[in-house]
Write a sequence for this structure.
């Protein structure tokens, strides 16, 4: 039934009307192949509340959905709301393509600590946080024990290095999986280490780059050291390939998000531990979110905002977190009795949230990635000292803030 | 007699072809193997005990594992239910673009091949210059243009840009084939009182068949490849999506269903391959032999 | 009124020809004009602005030549341009050579040539991204066929990740690019070879000419126009070849595979800096235009030497 309505709607648009969008619809871009049933429930409730308004939910495959909403917005034909990575919010906000969103005080109190920092810029919120992740270290006990070490959580970088070295020397596998391809998850991997060493990238309030610091140099140098006990050719690998290596028993450990458990083979005995602490800091983690952003100038901006709110709260949000295997974005224990993350496995990802740092908000987030990844590749390929590389990266970062 | 080869020559030719084809198909071997494995065992390194080097037997073990099955080929229809529709769309779009483009390309290529006229070089260079721009920068202005004409979310949204971007290379490539057809044949027709258009239709066209086939194939495959960008940007309607866009649906939030994606790609290539197999028979030697006796 | 028409009626044979020629070209030209010209103009205009995501619909300021100065003045620009041309020459050269070899092989009178011809096509037919994934896996250090093979044959000590090191990443990308482009080139050369009149070969054969002689003195000159055209077209595409490098290395490691188009995407298009992106697109067009001009001129001289069938009248 909905399909027929949608088809008629599309036929009208295709018949050559000059007006970009029908007046009574809210166009939403959802990432993924299909509309999830939980989302459909929200859409139906929304349409019931606002009779005469249709929800035009477009499911765009991963990898292209963000580009599509950006392209449409740039071309003057913005959608009502879309799922995008929070790292883009600053640029979209500064470009005037999205509108700040209202989050009620009760809602604000429900979010896990640090989550709202990933959508904030200039004192306002620019998106409704919708998907959240933290990271931890996965260790293959089979390999560690075969190397003659006890399979316990290394608490410091030194312990981490020693464990990796043991695996590297005593088994045919590499000690640790290190990603150094120019991907965003390479940068994320680095930030996990950085935040566990008391380092920061930028100061959100003053807007200055704090990347060029002794803690950062220390972190980068450690990455270079880890390369010696990591799989061959780190510059050719990004995180999903590390998962493949891990599944094949080629690396002893690597950093991944909560979905890792589901991606790993059943026959691997593993433990999940917090990211070890560096000499200058304490164990931390990286907080990354994706959000629902509301675009400016769409036909029904207020309705879009309300729809976004409905999608990112309550049952709909819980269902998403649980089915996608994500770190819970809201403190659901305040809302319900049983939560999916009460096991030890999940607690490893939930517990460090308070000590985590957000993905830095840059206007030119590509510059952020290029700068950090350039430094990582540099230290691994031996292109310069850690100090020089960090300084060079800071320059690139400064241009993008 | 000219076409007979000695045994040594034959061996040489077959070996060389084998090498050539091996190079061409090597990645497909990997892709095929990947399509046969379950996701968690997608890749594996041959077992090599500590401190030893890989033996030939170890190496060959990478081609076979007991976990292989054709499961992915069954699952892919479930993961992406509209897959058959996407394949159909791809073939349909590419065919449409090819036929429409050829209507424009053939007369133009003939003109460039035969005549010298004012503005020839300039216009030819301009046509080619279109190819020098990468599609990405033109995407947004094109979007606005298509929106203005109300053509978004239709098959036309993908056909029109496709035609426009393939015409220049079609003209450029067909021109060289047409240039090689001896002018004496046309002159003979003129002497008999035929008009220019008649000559084009009845004399030139049949002789240009190898060139036409090849340019047609090139345009077809070009259209097949280009579809993706235009489909993603200009079309929202799932029913009209071509295969490359559909393949993206195997990419999940954190996992990519590589095995099914490869299975779908390999299956998607088959129709085009069959069409080509059928068409290449027209590339037979010596078309103009005997047509003109000096 | 009839005087007016008299003025426009073609008077000379040359004018009739011109008119007829343009009549044939007009449909194609019109389509191009209708679809492409405005986007191209927009791109050119945008290259002088500081247009970004928010200002695309209006509000972008004209910054004159600033974009161009920044692009050309960037400290990495010369090395990127050099690298791009090296990439292009190497890749196109290999494609042409392989194409000639392949076409000759596939033109020969052997059994099963139909199937062989079809088997050569898949790299071209399959979407570029998919083919590149295949190569990504081939180049993988731990799982890749090539690395495993090298290890078994004793060439390397352990896994070798082709895409992780600067030199090998570059040449690996070239190999993949050649792989993708060769089928089309082969096919076109094959078609051109099939169009060479058989009596030429027969005459030479009767005179005792060897195969190599026949290839050098008959085939090559006859297919030269196709080789030239195909090479130029391939050069233009290779110059702008983006997907292949991107999927394999994203321009890394440390910029070793960053060609002009990769740089354009990294600094402008992905950051939605439309002004800067347009500038680079124009620069690419200029570079390619100059190259084409030189290429065609040089070959014009060479062509006169060989003297092949060409334009009549």
């Amino acid at each position: 039934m909905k399909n027929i309505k949608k088809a008629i709607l599309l036929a009208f648009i295709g018949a050559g009307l000059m007006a970009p969008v029908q007046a009574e619809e809210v166009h939403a871009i959802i990432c993924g192949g299909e509309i999830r049933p939980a989302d459909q429930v929200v859409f139906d409730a929304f349409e019931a509340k606002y009779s005469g308004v249709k929800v035009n939910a477009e499911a765009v495959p991963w990898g292209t959905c963000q580009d599509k909403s950006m392209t449409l917005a740039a071309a003057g034909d913005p959608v009502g709301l879309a799922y995008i990575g929070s790292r883009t919010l600053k640029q979209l906000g500064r470009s005037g393509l999205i509108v700040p969103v209202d989050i009620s005080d009760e809602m604000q109190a429900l979010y896990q600590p640090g989550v709202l920092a990933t959508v904030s810029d200039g004192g306002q919120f620019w998106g409704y946080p919708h998907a959240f992740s933290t990271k931890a270290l996965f260790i293959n006990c089979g390999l560690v024990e075969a190397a003659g070490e006890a399979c316990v959580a290394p608490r410091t970088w030194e312990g981490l290095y020693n464990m990796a070295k043991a695996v590297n020397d005593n088994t045919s596998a590499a000690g640790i999986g290190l990603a150094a391809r120019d991907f965003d998850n390479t940068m994320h991997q680095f930030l996990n280490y950085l935040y566990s060493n008391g380092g920061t990238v930028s100061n959100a309030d003053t807007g200055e780059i704090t990347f060029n610091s002794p803690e950062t140099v220390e972190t980068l140098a450690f990455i270079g050291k880890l390369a010696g006990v990591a799989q061959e050719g780190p510059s050719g690998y990004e995180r999903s390939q590390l998962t493949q290596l891990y599944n094949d028993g080629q690396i002893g450990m690597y950093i991944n998000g909560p979905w890792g458990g589901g991606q790993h083979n059943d026959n691997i005995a593993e433990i999940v531990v917090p990211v070890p602490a560096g000499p200058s800091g304490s164990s931390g983690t990286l907080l990354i979110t994706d959000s629902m952003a509301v675009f400016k100038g769409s036909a029904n901006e207020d309705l879009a905002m309300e729809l976004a709110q409905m999608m990112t709260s309550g049952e709909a949000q819980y269902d998403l977190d649980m089915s996608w295997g994500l770190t819970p974005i809201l403190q659901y224990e305040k809302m319900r009795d049983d939560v999916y993350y009460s096991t030890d496995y999940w607690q490893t990802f939930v517990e460090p949230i308070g000590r985590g740092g957000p993905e830095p908000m840059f206007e030119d987030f590509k510059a952020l990635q290029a700068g950090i990844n350039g430094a990582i590749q540099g230290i691994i390929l031996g292109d310069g000292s850690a100090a020089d590389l960090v300084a060079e990266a800071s320059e690139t970062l400064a241009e993008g803030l | 007699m000219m076409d007979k080869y000695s045994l040594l020559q034959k061996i040489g030719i077959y070996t060389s072809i084998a090498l050539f084809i091996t190079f061409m198909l090597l990645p497909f071997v990997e892709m095929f193997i990947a399509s046969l494995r379950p996701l968690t065992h997608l890749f594996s390194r041959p077992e090599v005990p500590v401190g030893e080097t890989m033996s030939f037997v170890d190496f060959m073990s990478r081609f076979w594992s007991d976990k292989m099955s054709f499961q992915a080929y069954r699952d892919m229809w479930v993961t992406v239910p509209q897959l058959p529709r996407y394949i159909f769309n791809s073939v349909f779009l590419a065919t449409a673009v090819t036929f429409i483009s050829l209507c424009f390309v053939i007369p133009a290529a003939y003109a460039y091949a035969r005549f010298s006229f004012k503005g020839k070089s300039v216009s030819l260079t301009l046509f080619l210059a279109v190819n020098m721009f990468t599609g990405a920068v033109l995407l947004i202005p094109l979007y606005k243009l298509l929106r203005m004409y109300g053509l978004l979310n239709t098959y036309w949204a993908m056909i029109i840009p496709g035609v426009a971007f393939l015409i220049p290379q079609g003209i450029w490539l067909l021109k060289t084939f047409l240039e090689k057809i001896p002018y004496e044949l046309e002159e003979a027709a003129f002497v008999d009182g035929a008009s220019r258009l008649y000559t084009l239709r009845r004399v030139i066209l049949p002789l240009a068949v190898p060139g036409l086939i090849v340019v047609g194939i090139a345009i077809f495959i070009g259209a097949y490849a280009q579809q993706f960008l235009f489909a993603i940007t200009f079309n929202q309607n799932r029913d009209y999506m071509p295969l490359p866009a559909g393949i993206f649906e195997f990419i999940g939030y954190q996992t990519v269903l590589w095995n099914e994606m490869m299975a779908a790609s390999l299956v998607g290539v088959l129709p085009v391959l069959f069409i080509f197999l059928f068409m290449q028979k027209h590339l037979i030697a010596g078309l103009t032999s005997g047509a003109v006796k000096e | 009124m009839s005087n007016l028409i008299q003025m426009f009626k073609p008077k000379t044979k040359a004018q009739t020809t011109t008119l007829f020629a343009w009549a044939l070209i007009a449909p194609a030209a019109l389509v191009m004009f209708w679809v492409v010209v405005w986007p191209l103009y927009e791109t050119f205009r945008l290259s002088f602005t500081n247009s970004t995501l928010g200002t695309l619909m209006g509000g972008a300021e004209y910054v004159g030549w600033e974009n161009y100065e920044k692009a050309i003045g960037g400290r990495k620009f010369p090395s990127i341009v050099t690298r791009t041309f090296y990439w292009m020459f190497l890749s196109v050269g290999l494609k042409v050579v392989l194409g000639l070899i392949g076409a000759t092989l596939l033109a020969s009178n052997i059994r099963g040539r139909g199937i062989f011809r079809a088997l050569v096509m898949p790299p071209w037919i399959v979407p570029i991204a998919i083919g590149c994934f295949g190569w990504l896996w081939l180049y993988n250090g731990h799982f890749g066929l090539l690395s495993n093979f090298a290890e078994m044959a004793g060439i390397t000590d352990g896994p070798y990740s082709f895409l992780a090191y600067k030199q090998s990443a570059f040449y690996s990308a070239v190999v993949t690019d050649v792989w993708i482009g060769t089928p089309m080139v082969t096919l076109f050369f094959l078609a051109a070879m099939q169009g060479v009149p058989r009596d030429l070969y027969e005459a030479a054969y009767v005179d005792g000419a060897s195969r190599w002689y026949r290839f050098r003195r008959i085939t090559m000159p006859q297919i030269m126009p196709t080789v030239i055209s195909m090479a130029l077209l391939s050069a233009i595409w290779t110059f702008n070849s983006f997907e292949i490098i991107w999927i394999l290395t994203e321009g890394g490691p440390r910029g070793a595979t960053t060609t002009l188009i990769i740089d354009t995407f990294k600094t402008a298009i992905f950051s939605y800096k439309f002004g800067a992106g347009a500038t680079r697109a124009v620069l690419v067009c200029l570079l390619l235009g100059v190259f084409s001009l030189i290429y065609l001129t040089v070959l014009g001289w060479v062509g006169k030497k060989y003297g092949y069938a060409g334009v009549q009248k």
The CA atoms of residues 142 and 215 of chain B lie 26 Å apart. Chain B has twelve helices and no strands. The longest helix of chain B spans residues 83-114. The two ends of chain B are 23 Å apart (CA to CA).
